[in-house]
Amino acid sequence: MSSRPSVFGLRSLKASVFSFGLLGSAVVSTSTAVAADWIFTPFVGIREAYTDNVLSTATNTESDFITTLNAGFTLDGIGNRLNILTSYDGAYDIYANTSDLNGFRHNLLGSANAELVQDHFFIDGQIAYTPEDLSTTGASSAIDRTLSNSQTQVLNYSISPYYLQRFGGTAVGIARYRFSQLRFDETDVGGAVDNPGNETTNEVNLILESGRNFSRTSWSLEAFGVDTVVEDGDDLKRGTFVASGQYSINRNVALLGITGYDEFDGENIDNDDISGAFIGAGVRLTPGPRTDLSLGYGYRYGGGIWNMDFSYIVSSAAILTASYVVDVGTGGQAYTNRDVLDEDGELVNTNFSNSDFVGTTTKYETFDVGIRGTRGLNGYSAGATYEKRDFLTANTNDETVSFFGFYSRELSPKLGLSVDGSWSKIIEPETPGEAETTIRAGAALNYRFGDNFTGSLAYNYYDRNADIAADNIKENVISVSLNKSF
């Protein structure tokens, strides 16, 4: 649930949230906050693609040519008290034979942080507005394009002002309010989609943690309340108090401890089963400057849970990370609690998922492992994810496992090669008999014709193999694209 959880599900102190209109009006009123270096880069592009399954059907497949016109921009604002990173890509797909699929797609990602009162008052925010397939059944494609059904335009945004106070070297206090919303809108093409209900969340968070005077011992006290309203769904209220600490035995070993109380008030669930006191203990190992492992076990949410966080710096240009976390929340909170910036500070889509969107209160168990880095002219990343979801309203569950990989190489100063692929499988479907396996693969040659002018020749493959034959889809796509930025 949380983008960067700590031991036993205690959430990160760093929230990342954004609403451009509200945040923009706030920073404009503070002249020093807008003293930033702005880099605005508009671009235009065109893509010509051939698909052998334009309607994403299991049988009687049809081919078509698709012309995509796109335009957009990236905006970077970097300053002492203001940081903004955003990108927008608007595309219009034109089908040679299947003209009823002609339509627009919008992809907007953004993140911002502003310091309104020096050292004390800040505001964070983020936004993601993207077309998504919220169901693993229905139409899907090897490339981004308009579809005949199942596609939804998802708006996921949040804004979070907070106040920070340092009490000398003894403690640091943070008082934060966070507003987030997840909305599901119809696209302008394709069949009608039964969208989930929109979700609105208000959250108050109070934190007091140890200051610089504590060397061998560190501690944190946190109290937060969450109120999520789901249209035509199950609302969820939550109040939690957490006390956690770390005691360093030596430079390589530290003991971890946590205790607190959860109180859930959700509709159509057994609140007593997941509410109550919790406790846990663990160990943090740092055998060297490149390795950091935290491992713990405790009792929370009505049962025993593990928690793990691991990082290993393979080299100056590569890092290996892994985590295992358990949390409880609504289906929408699984999206709004994700960070739109990755570990490298790059924008990523927070609305994508390998599993169906389920808008009920859910207990999540998630394991992630990944490696990323560069070596000479090569760049690479790979990883795996396992997720188990217990749907507390229906007393059902599902399990999904997925793997991904990416590789790029600079063949010459102007020519580059990239290859990517992913494999995901619903190994335990919520409804028996609806398991499926999905494979995606692609390769591209990218050529730089001149400054800010690039071209690409790409091949993409998609294969969904489901227990229900009508949900099977295979598609091959060949495309050529040109892009010019200014």
Could you say which structural class the secondary elements and strand pairing correspond to?
mainly beta
Uncertain residue ranges: 1-34
| Major pleated sheet | 22 strands, antiparallel, barrel
Oligomer: single chain
Number of helices: 3
How would the blueprint of this fold be written?
Elements: H1 20-28, E1 36-51, E2 64-79, E3 82-95, E4 103-117, E5 121-133, E6 151-167, E7 171-186, E8 199-210, E9 217-230, E10 236-248, E11 253-266, H2 271-274, E12 276-288, E13 291-300, E14 303-315, E15 318-329, H3 333-336, E16 362-375, E17 378-391, E18 396-410, E19 415-428, E20 436-450, E21 453-466, E22 473-485
Antiparallel strand pairs: 1-2, 1-22, 2-3, 3-4, 4-5, 5-6, 6-7, 7-8, 8-9, 9-10, 10-11, 11-12, 12-13, 13-14, 14-15, 15-16, 16-17, 17-18, 18-19, 19-20, 20-21, 21-22
Report on this model:
By secondary structure, the chain is mainly β. The protein has one domain (7-485): Maltoporin, Chain A. Helices cover 3% and strands 63% of the residues. It contains three helices and 22 strands. It has helices at residues 20-28, 271-274, 333-336, and strands at residues 36-51, 64-79, 82-95, 103-117, 121-133, 151-167, 171-186, 199-210, 217-230, 236-248, 253-266, 276-288, 291-300, 303-315, 318-329, 362-375, 378-391, 396-410, 415-428, 436-450, 453-466, 473-485. The chain has a 22-stranded antiparallel beta barrel. The two termini are 39 Å apart.
Quick summary of this structure?
Helix content is 3%, strand content 63%. It has helices at residues 20-28, 271-274, 333-336; strands at residues 36-51, 64-79, 82-95, 103-117, 121-133, 151-167, 171-186, 199-210, 217-230, 236-248, 253-266, 276-288, 291-300, 303-315, 318-329, 362-375, 378-391, 396-410, 415-428, 436-450, 453-466, 473-485.
